[in-house]
Each structure stands twice: as structure tokens, then as C-alpha cells.
């Protein structure tokens, strides 16, 4: 992976030393009279206002981690099926992590990447629609690569903490582009059964009885799947309930 062998993802690379957020930077480029080509990637050494899901902030030590945003144009995906894109992207990032770290990697719904019970990275997808279909997607990915210290309150981990070695971020980006493109092409070619099966196989806590919190209550449940619109399906005392991201918390 020392060179980028992906066909289009990552071919147009914008490398920045400092930016507010790579997602914001890419969103701005979309307003240009000639928008950037599909597969464009923005990479930053330092983001001073990195964004996570649910208005969270994303922190990373400058120069140590991957903070990147990819432009995809999934015009073949219906707005109602947009979680299919999350699945493909999550799988691409998980495949990349498995390549370096092996089998303890999983996808924590809706789109975090975990190693055992710790967060390795997160994904922030921002979709733009045209009528009933997606037009453009900004796929922001933050992965903890060479950072070795994290605040205690967050259960975070990095490639370096797991493997005790440093990684070249450019090599990581090349590999990530290849794995992401492979999953994106599966989505484009309609290989949804494969994506659904692989997503479930990689899903953190699938089929495991564990603790959750929803509506102020703590309860035991077992994740049984994810619905077509992206809701988490949890079996609670033999009754399957569906939750949106805001509604349920893993404990
Ligand atoms: C999450 O875990 O909540 C998602 C984190 C996503 C962080 C990445 S870093 C690159 C891109 N730019 C941003 O501002 N956020 C995403």
C-alpha cells in the first residue's frame, strides 16, 4: 500500500496542515463552479474544530492520526436507503483496520470502529440529496493511529497502542482508499446481500446480552440486527424494539 492502488478514491488528494474540519472544507469545495471529482480526499494534520456525530467534537493530536474526508457521489442510492452507504463505508474502514490489526475489530452501530471494547475511530457521513436519491456524500473518517495518550473518560485506543509500532499516515490513507473503494463498488454493483451479511458479522455485540439505556431506563438486551432505515433492533425480554441513534446508549 505504499502507492494508492484504488481506481478513483484518493486520486485527487488535498493535504492540509491545518483546517477547522475536513468535512467543512470539502463541503465548501462543493459550492465551487467546478466541484471536485468523486473520490477527492481532504487530509489534515490538524483539525481545530473536528466534528463527531450528535454535535460532538472530535479531538486528535496533531500529526498523529488520520483525519480525512472523502467525496462520494452515490446517485444510485435512494434517500430512504442511505444507511446502505453507512454500511459500505463502515465495512471499508473495518476491513482496513482488520488488515493491520486482525480479528478483534468490529463495527459499533451506527458507525464507530471498535477494537475489543475500545473506540479506534469514528465516521461522520453528511449526505446531500437531489429529489429521491443521494447526490453527494461527505464521508469523514477519524482513526486513532499513532496517538498514545487519551483522556481517561473516553475508552479510546490506537493502532500504536495495540501493535506497539508507528504507522506512516500516507500508507494508511492508501490502504483505506483501497478498502473503501472495494466496498463502495459492492454497493454500486448491488451486492447488498453480501454487505448486509458482512455488516452483521462485524457488528459489535451482535447476539450478546448486554446493558443499554433508553428513555432513562437501564435494561438488558440483545442486538439482533439493523433495520433498512438504520435503526438498531434489540431483543428485550423476547420483544424486538427498534431504536434510532439518539434513543439508545450502550453501557
Ligand atoms: C464520531 O465518532 O462521532 C465521528 C468522528 C468523525 C471524525 C472525522 S475526522 C475527519 C472528519 N472531519 C470532521 O470534522 N469529522 C470527521
Automatic annotation (TrEMBL):
Lineage top rank: taxon: Bacteria
The protein's name in its UniProt record: BirA, biotin-(Acetyl-CoA-carboxylase) ligase
Pfam families given in the database record: BPL_LplA_LipB
Record flagged with keyword Oxidoreductase: no
UniProt domain BPL/LPL catalytic: residue ranges: 19-144
UniProt xrefs under InterPro entries: aa-tRNA-synth_II/BPL/LPL (IPR045864), Biotin_CoA_COase_ligase (IPR004408), BPL_LPL_catalytic (IPR004143)
Gene3D superfamilies, A to Z: Bira Bifunctional Protein, Domain 2 (3.30.930.10)
Keyword Nucleotide-binding: no
Amino acid at each position: 500500500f505504499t502507492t494508492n492502488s484504488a481506481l478513483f478514491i484518493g486520486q485527487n488528494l488535498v493535504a492540509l496542515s491545518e483546517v477547522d474540519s475536513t468535512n467543512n472544507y470539502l463541503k465548501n469545495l462543493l459550492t465551487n463552479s467546478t466541484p471536485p471529482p468523486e473520490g477527492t480526499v481532504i487530509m489534515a494534520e490538524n483539525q481545530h474544530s473536528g466534528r463527531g456525530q450528535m454535535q460532538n467534537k472530535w479531538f486528535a493530536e496533531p500529526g498523529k492520526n488520520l483525519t480525512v474526508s472523502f467525496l462520494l457521489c452515490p446517485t444510485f442510492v435512494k434517500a430512504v436507503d442511505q444507511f446502505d452507504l453507512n454500511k459500505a463505508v463502515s465495512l471499508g474502514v473495518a476491513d482496513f483496520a482488520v488488515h493491520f490489526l486482525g480479528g478483534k475489530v468490529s463495527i459499533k452501530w451506527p458507525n464507530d470502529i471498535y477494537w475489543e471494547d475500545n473506540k479506534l475511530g469514528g465516521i461522520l457521513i453528511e449526505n446531500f440529496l437531489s429529489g429521491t436519491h443521494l447526490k453527494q456524500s461527505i464521508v469523514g473518517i477519524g482513526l486513532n493511529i499513532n496517538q498514545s495518550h487519551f483522556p481517561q473518560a473516553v475508552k479510546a485506543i490506537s493502532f500504536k497502542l495495540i501493535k506497539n509500532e508507528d504507522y506512516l499516515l500516507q500508507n494508511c490513507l492508501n490502504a483505506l482508499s483501497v478498502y473503501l473503494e472495494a466496498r463502495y463498488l459492492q454497493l454500486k454493483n448491488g451486492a447488498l446481500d453480501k454487505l448486509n451479511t458482512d455488516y452483521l458479522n462485524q457488528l459489535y455485540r451482535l447476539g450478546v446480552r448486554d446493558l443499554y439505556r433508553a428513555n432513562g431506563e437501564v435494561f438488558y438486551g440483545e442486538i439482533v440486527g439493523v433495520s433498512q432505515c438504520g435503526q438498531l433492533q434489540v431483543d428485550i425480554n423476547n420483544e424486538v424494539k427498534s431504536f434510532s441513534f439518539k434513543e439508545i446508549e450502550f453501557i
